[in-house]
Design goal:
The chain has about 280 residues and is mainly beta. It is about 5% helix and about 65% strand. It is globular and about 50 Å long. Belongs to the eukaryotic mitochondrial porin (TC 1.B.8.1) family.
């Protein structure tokens, strides 16, 4: 399923992940286990402010089918069914949340050597249809995405993007929010082992004439420890330190400071994910 230029959501993903992934300003603890029969169980507790929330997840893999079931503290049940190779080079995904059955969604993904297509339909009283297409070759990909509301017969979104990937770098240009937001990102790896990287992203919102520039990077201090940091032109400085206690068990410490308002309390987060 990984062949070809990838999905439209993959455009700019590497730079986006380096700037956002694993940054967490709550207290989070999770324990996961997997059996030889393909059954996975995950228990997660999050403290946000003075409130605690919890979630239990169950993942079962059988041949080309994945069943993902999640139950939270409010008794909401979210179920996702994934069927790989339901047709050649095709993946089908169905999801719904109980008791809100209007949240149901059906999605089909098709992967080709030089293109990919996705179609998703929201199964509600006011259905929306989202579709995307990506074409590319030799590290260059171009994609478009659009959403349509069947009841109002209006476009809910349209986005376009282009990306270029090389062994040591990745760049992307995305025009989003119905043409109101322009995002340009560039990521560059340092060294052949790609243990360190630098990234920059410029966001321009035309309706408000607002510009945001974010620079960041990551560095592997040793095989088990990674340090990441980012800073934008509004003075928000974020940093995290992630350490692998043992294979697949991660301890992450993160924080955010407003360098233009030092009187404000900084944000701190702690995440511990244990996989026996």
């Amino acid at each position: 399923m990984s062949k070809g230029p990838g999905l439209f959501s993959d455009i700019g993903k590497k730079a986006r992940d380096l700037l956002t992934k694993d940054y967490n300003y709550d207290q989070k603890f999770s324990v996961s286990s997997t059996s030889e029969a393909g059954l996975g169980l995950t228990s997660t507790t999050v403290k946000k402010g003075g409130l605690y929330t919890g979630e239990v997840g169950l993942l079962y893999k059988y041949r080309n089918t994945n069943v993902d079931l999640k139950v939270d503290a409010a008794s909401n049940v979210c179920t996702t069914l994934t069927f790989n190779e339901v047709l050649p080079s095709t993946k089908a995904i169905a999801s719904f949340r109980a008791p809100d059955f209007n949240s149901g969604k059906a999605e089909m993904q098709y992967f080709h050597e030089h293109a990919s297509f996705t179609t998703a339909v929201a199964l509600s009283k006011s259905p929306t249809i989202d579709a995307s297409a990506t074409i590319g070759a030799q590290g260059i990909a171009f994609g478009v995405e659009a959403g349509f509301n069947a009841s109002s017969k209006n476009l809910t979104k349209y986005t376009a993007g282009i990306s270029m990937a090389k062994p040591d770098s990745s760049s992307a240009i995305i025009l989003a929010d119905k043409g109101d937001v322009l995002k340009i990102s560039y990521l560059h790896y340092l060294g052949e082992k790609q243990r360190s990287a630098l990234v920059g992203e410029i966001t321009r919102r035309f309706s408000t004439n607002e510009n945001t520039f974010t620079a960041g990077g990551s560095h592997a201090i040793d095989p088990q420890t990674t340090f990441k940091a980012k800073l934008n032109n509004h003075g928000k400085l974020g940093a995290l330190l992630q350490h692998e206690l043992k294979p697949k068990s991660l301890l992450t410490l993160s924080g955010e400071f407003d360098t233009k308002a030092l009187e404000k309390y900084p944000k701190f987060g702690l995440s511990l994910a244990i996989k026996p």
